[in-house]
Amino acid sequence: MIDRINVGAGVFFVLAGLLFLLDGLEVIAVSATWVWPLLLIALGVALVLAGRGRRS
Amino acid sequence: MSEPPTPAAPEPRTERSLAPIALGALLIVAGGAWLLETLDLIDFSFEVLLPAALVVVGVILIAAARRRRQGGLIALGVVLTVLSALVVAGDVGGGVGDRRVEVTGTEPIRDQELGVGQLVLDLSDIEPTGAEELVAEVGIGELRVEVPPDLPVRVHAESGIGQVDVFGEQEGGFGSEIDHVDEGFDAATASLDLELSVGIGEVTISR
Question: How far is Cα B72 from Cα B68, in angstroms, rounded to an integer?
């Protein structure tokens, strides 16, 4: 059986890591003003998904 | 009559957490990168290393989809995410310390960057002959800019976490930013266009 939390967290970490990596390599510029709101949204989505996973 | 022997129940499969293995591998890679940087063989940068480690943790988690919940690895990923975000928000290039830059008359205005500390740009006595632009960034700390009272300016000031103060107008918290354009800026023959940014800390511009 697939653990959705493992997969969801893994996908999030890969996407966030790639975003930060591209910024570190100066391919794109991630504005400081976007980082924290986006992280808060991602944390909220993760908590909602974790809550749904626990009920089912 | 004796009952036939029942086969022994299989031992429950014990799955070890992947977190110690992943953490160990990351420490080996980080130590190796540091060592190679010390030997001047590669350029070691937290801006690249931390996100790369985050990607590795994510890939391991996806590969562990059919294993039990990897709480330790998820916690490690959260820590790496926050550290990566801090490095991005507080772009730590440009050095550490306090710096004061004073420009007067028609001297050229150069972009400024400071990693950690206080950066003061005293432009109160500049006399530009055309449309000048300036980008100033501080990773973690304070950025203070002073401009002439009668020079039309356009300002975009932002702070990832902290306070922005543009000619007395203030905003604080996460992702604070203020845009300001003086009257007559577009028509002025001499003007100053400012792009001011602090990752964590305070931006202040005054006359």
Answer: 11
pLDDT of A44 > 60? The answer is yes
Which run of H or of E encompasses A37? helix A32-55
ipTM metric: 0.81
Partner-chain contact B84 A31, CB within 8 Å: no
Q: Is B172 helix (H, G, I), strand (E, B) or coil?
A: strand
For tokens 């996973």, name the residue. A53
For residue B75, the SS3 value is helix
Q: How far is A4 from chain B (nearest CA, A)?
A: 7
What string of DSSP letters covers B99-139? EEEEEEETPPP--EEEEEEEEEEEEEEE--SSEEEEEEEEE
The identity of residue A1, as a single letter, is M
Q: What predicted TM-score, i.e. pTM, was given to this entire model? A: 0.55
Q: Inspect the interface and report whether the beta carbons of A6 and B174 lie closer than 8 Å.
A: no
Strands B169-181 and B112-126: unpaired
Cα separation, B85 vs B80, in Å, equals 8
Backbone angles phi, psi at B124, to 5 degrees: -65, -20
